[in-house]
Amino acid sequence: MKRIDLSPFELQVFLVLVETGSFRAVAHHFALSQPAVSRAVARIEQRIGARLFDRTSRSVALTPQGEALLPIARRVIHDLTTSLDEITQSLSAIGGHVAIAALPSIASAILPPLFARLHRDDPEIRLSIIDTLLDGVTGAVAQGEVDFGIAVEPSRRLPDLVFEPLTTDRFVAVLSARHALASLPDLSWADLATHPVVAMRSLTSVRQLTDEGFASAGCAVVPAFEVSHLASAGALVAAGLGVTALPELALKAFDTEGIVTRPLTAPVVHRAICLVQRRGRTLSPTAALVRQRLLMLAP
């Protein structure tokens, strides 16, 4: 038996004509001309292979074949409408998992307030953080392992990624409260260079910017200590073993008891913190909500 091929629109024309009994009403409902409605009905009957309506100058009535089609058409349109509603709800629903990659100094400063608000307002959202170095953040975003990242923009061009400015973070001098320089209201990079320096490892984005700061001040610095973690830098400074320069937000990553900070000048160095997304990728509604909240809460 040959399959009858009717479109949802044709079934809807059939149902509206049954409900209204008027070609004019159907034409108004679908914003069509009456001849267009007549052609559509004729096309339906041709595909069905049977007359569906008895027409007179005053009325339109279903034939027995039309009566047989009516419950089937209603069921098909109901099921289609229900399925489309489910798709709409699924695509617009807020919930599920959102993954973010971020530099450790940013993850500890910016993300906790965001996560606290989301936990309060949208507890159905599950969140995870990959706290890693710059190459790890950009790699995770590029490979689609996370929804978006938070990092500084690297010096090399990454055409597959989009960097959107989020906030700026100024570098400050970090030293023991007992250190001789602690009595000064502000410090220069040259001031720090005259003392043992605690530096982050060369692979970190913080190290790249501190090297630039010392170089701009005309100072060649050989670190007394190199560390991988901010907490280690803080502990060495608190013990009076050296001084360091860190972004202000990074100070939230470790215990600052016994430590003081001073503004760094000559030059003033900032790092631009950006949202990182893969070019051409559309965020899910949930990830888009998290991104929006992050923009609102950024310092």
Structural account:
With 299 residues, the protein is α/β, with parallel strands linked by helices. The chain folds into two domains: 8-92, Winged helix-like DNA-binding domain superfamily/Winged helix DNA-binding domain (Arc Repressor Mutant, subunit A, Orthogonal Bundle), CATH 1.10.10; 98-273, 3-Layer(aba) Sandwich (D-Maltodextrin-Binding Protein, domain 2). It is built from eleven helices and twelve strands. The chain has helices spanning 8-20, 23-30, 34-48, 64-92, 104-107, 111-121, 134-142, 189-193, 205-216, 230-238, 285-297, and strands at residues 53-55, 60-62, 96-102, 125-131, 148-152, 161-176, 187-188, 198-200, 225-227, 244-247, 259-265, 270-278. Strand 1 and strand 2 (60-62) form a beta hairpin. Helix 2 (23-30) packs across helix 3. The chain is rod-shaped and about 105 Å long.
Give a brief outline of the structure.
It contains eleven helices and twelve strands.
Task: Report the portion of residues in β strands.
Answer: 15-25%
Question: Nearest-angstrom radius of gyration?
Answer: 33 Å
Looking at CATH, which topology of the largest domain would you report? D-Maltodextrin-Binding Protein, domain 2
Give the end-to-end Cα distance, rounded to a whole number of Å.
69 Å
Assign the CATH architecture of the largest domain.
3-Layer(aba) Sandwich
Poorly predicted ranges: none
InterPro entries: HTH-type_LysR_regulators (IPR050950), LysR_HTH_N (IPR000847), LysR_subst-bd (IPR005119), WH-like_DNA-bd_sf (IPR036388), WH_DNA-bd_sf (IPR036390)
Pfam family, one: HTH_1
GO cellular component, one term: cytosol
GO molecular function: DNA binding; DNA-binding transcription factor activity
